[in-house]
Amino acid sequence: MEILSEIADKIKELRKEKGYTLKDLADKTELSVSFLSQVENGSSSLAITSLKKLADAFSVPMTYFFYSMDTHNYHVKIDEQKSFKMEGLPSEFVRLSGDFSSRSLESMIVTIPGGQKHGHKYNHPGEEFAYVLEGVLIVEIEDKEYLVQTGDSIHYPSTMPHQWRNPLGSPVKILSVITPAVF
Questions:
Q1: What is the pTM of this model?
Q2: What is the mean pLDDT of residues 65-89?
Q3: H-state helical runs in the chain
Q4: What is the DSSP letter of 150?
Q5: Are 164 and 122 in contact (CB under 8 A)?
Q6: 3-state SS class at 89
Q7: Which of 31, 52, 61, 113 is the residue whose CA sits 20 to 30 A from 7?
Q8: What is the b/e burial string over 31-47, where b = at least 16 CB atoms within 10 angstroms of the residue's CB?
Q9: Is 29 helix (H, G, I), strand (E, B) or coil?
Q10: By the 8 A CB rule, do 134 and 171 touch?
Q11: Among candidate residues 162, 173, 182, the one with its CA nearest the CA of residue 106
């Protein structure tokens, strides 16, 4: 079963468990009833911000939608590392973190295609660390730009408005570690 289908099933299951109608859930998340219906039926994917709204409405961590909280998988083997994309982002992600309920770090490989931005400029709780494995990354933090090249790293509080951008025509591959854990 693919990730989006699993997420859709968990959303529908949680909604029914809590006794919420689609309208109740729409009111709690500020997402439309039609959008929520499409997500539950697997005909629409959702952005990470929408998934966060759903997690908050259900009082569960975002990790709930990706893996069973009963799992204690500390070792992530290379054949278990599957790439995925999120709606609205050109980037590709490979999750590297172990899976246990008390973790606070999220580690992943992020690949941004040439000439693309990684989302819009935003801020959120926590910290971010990025190590450029291949290529060049421009990290804008508040109003200052940092050129982060292969072998360079950058570490900053993610409470400051920030954005990543690939200025070259070829992909940039980044080892990213953030807090709090989002997946």
A1: 0.64
A2: 75
A3: 3-18, 22-29, 33-40, 48-58
A4: T
A5: no
A6: coil
A7: 113
A8: beeeebeebbeeebbbe
A9: helix
A10: yes
A11: 182
